Amino acid sequence: MVQLCVNGARTSADGAVVPLSPEAVADSVAEAVAAGATDVHVHPKTPCGRDTLSPRVLAATLEAIRARVPASVPVGVTTGAWAEPGPAARVARIRSWTALPDHASVNWHEPGAEEVAAALIERGVAVEAGIWSGTEGAALFRRSPLGPRVLRVLAEVTDPDPATARDSAHALLARLGTAHGRPVLLHGEEGGAWPVLRLAGRLGLATRIGLEDTLRLPDGGRATSNAELVTAGTREWAAARRGHD
């Protein structure tokens, strides 16, 4: 699986290539799915470009995407603490959603992660457990009674250095252990995005790529779209897998 991470917490300051409005997001997702993305992770944005868990914005974003892509492509959203400070407020937002994503990511190192995950499960939304390197997320997740119930683990390598990101990825996977037997999606960010994606290929793990994780192509050139990143990502992952075989 190659998941598309559409926009992340990026803003207009990162350039016009980053889709922010529901319509721009839907166009970008449709192009990336045509390029080979099989799953979508998106950050719905307010009109001023801020991440939000607002039911109105979420519904508009999901409606726009689902009008452009096949129903077989799951669409997920963030529940990051920066989008709605306070665990109780995040839970309240989830309970107020009028349209539901297929899955939502929960960063396990954030306060209230268990409550947020439980609220999603109660609403029938699958949970992606976001486990960041450099945090206590892996240890907390190993002890979590909800661990066996998540859809997958997003092993996120926050080390942006291409020289050390692979080592950071190995260390994170070791801390995760069996991950409650759940599938693992391994990815990096910024300078570490491509080395970690290739490692995922060598290990046969799912991965993700998109403008949330990097604005650069493997050769260092500026990406012009999510579709371009997905095309490069599927190629790099497959080449790494063939090298392993």
From TrEMBL:
Any coiled-coil ranges, and where? none
Q: Which Pfam families match?
A: BKACE
This chain belongs to the protein called 3-keto-5-aminohexanoate cleavage protein
